[in-house]
């Protein structure tokens, strides 16, 4: 089991920002986590990465039970987290290649000498994520879409068991977004892929690899299960609180306001 949450609640400043969350993610599944602004997505991700401890309920991530097993760094090494808040922490002068290599040490800069295997792996990831042609450019010269792909490659350097992508297409134009989604699809389709948890506001980002979806609303699970079954005009209209139309193009959903 990758994740197991039972009746989880998180109380902050007198407010339940997560409430009665039940969720199980099994090995080999890739999930989308869909929620509007303020739904509690960040709170939930911070809990899974052991930055928040649940007020109520039980949480188990990658076989470690909160409150019973050692968490912190040990757990975080098995989790690749890509979030825009992390991007600002990197040294802007470092090249894309150096930043990807630093993922092998789980460090922000590159202080140790990488092994030949690490260099080979970083090069493979540069190619897989389509970053090879800007491998030697300083991070500050890269576009937001290029940076995001570097961040994903970096998170894969440590061979995580769980890869969390937190709104990775934020700020990307149409082309950069589609390129990034292609990269996510490729990573998720690999035989030895980590379990991917893809957090988004946008229904059209629910790629075919995300066979399961958790819909989060006001800190509670609105619905969860097979994406194909969950995504109906009725469920989505109820979820968003306005009537929407739904259609599928190349196995990807799209919605419009009626
Ligand atoms: N420490 C806190 N005290 C009180 N309320 C909080 C605290 N932290 C978060 N919240 C509230 O909990 C709710 C969920 O916040 P969270 O950041 O998890 O939402 P989100 O789904 O990630 O939203 P977004 O998509 O806008 O990033 C929000 O209404 C937020 O204001």
Automatic annotation (TrEMBL):
Record's keyword terms, sorted: ATP-binding, Cell membrane, Membrane, Nucleotide-binding, Translocase, Transport
CDD domains documented for this protein: ABC_cobalt_CbiO_domain1
Location of the protein in the cell: Cell membrane
Top-level lineage group: Bacteria
Single GO cellular component term: ATP-binding cassette (ABC) transporter complex
Membrane topology: Peripheral membrane protein
Organism: Amphibacillus marinus
GO molecular function, one term: ATPase-coupled transmembrane transporter activity
Protein name (Swiss-Prot/TrEMBL): Iron complex transport system ATP-binding protein
Membrane-crossing residue ranges in chain numbering: none
UniProt record similarity statement: Belongs to the ABC transporter superfamily.
Source lineage: Bacteria, Bacillati, Bacillota, Bacilli, Bacillales
Main localization of the protein described in the UniProt heading: membrane
The ABC transporter domain, residue ranges: 3-243
Xref: Pfam families: ABC_tran (PF00005)
């Amino acid at each position: 089991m990758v994740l197991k949450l039972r009746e989880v609640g998180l109380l902050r400043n007198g407010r339940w920002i997560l409430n009665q969350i039940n969720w199980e993610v099994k090995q080999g599944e890739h999930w989308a986590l869909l929620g509007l602004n303020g739904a509690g997505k960040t709170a939930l991700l911070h809990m899974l990465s052991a930055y928040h401890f649940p007020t109520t309920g039980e949480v188990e991530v990658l076989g470690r039970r909160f409150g019973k097993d050692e968490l912190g760094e040990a757990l975080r090494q098995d989790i690749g987290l890509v979030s825009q808040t992390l991007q600002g922490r990197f040294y802007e002068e470092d090249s894309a290649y150096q930043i990807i290599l630093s993922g092998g040490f789980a460090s922000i800069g590159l202080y140790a000498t990488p092994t030949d295997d690490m260099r080979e792996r970083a090069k493979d990831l540069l190619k897989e994520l389509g970053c090879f042609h800007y491998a030697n450019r300083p991070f500050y010269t890269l576009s937001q879409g290029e940076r995001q792909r570097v961040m994903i490659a970096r998170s894969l350097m440590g061979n995580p068991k769980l890869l969390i992508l937190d709104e990775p297409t934020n700020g990307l134009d149409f082309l950069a977004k589609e390129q990034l989604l292609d990269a996510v699809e490729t990573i998720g389709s690999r035989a030895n892929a980590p379990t991917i948890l893809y957090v988004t506001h946008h229904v059209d980002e629910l790629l075919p690899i995300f066979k399961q979806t958790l819909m989060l609303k006001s800190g509670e699970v609105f619905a969860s299960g097979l994406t194909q079954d969950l995504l109906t005009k009725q469920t989505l209209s109820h979820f968003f609180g306005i009537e929407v139309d739904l259609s599928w193009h190349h196995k990807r959903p799209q919605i419009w306001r009626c």
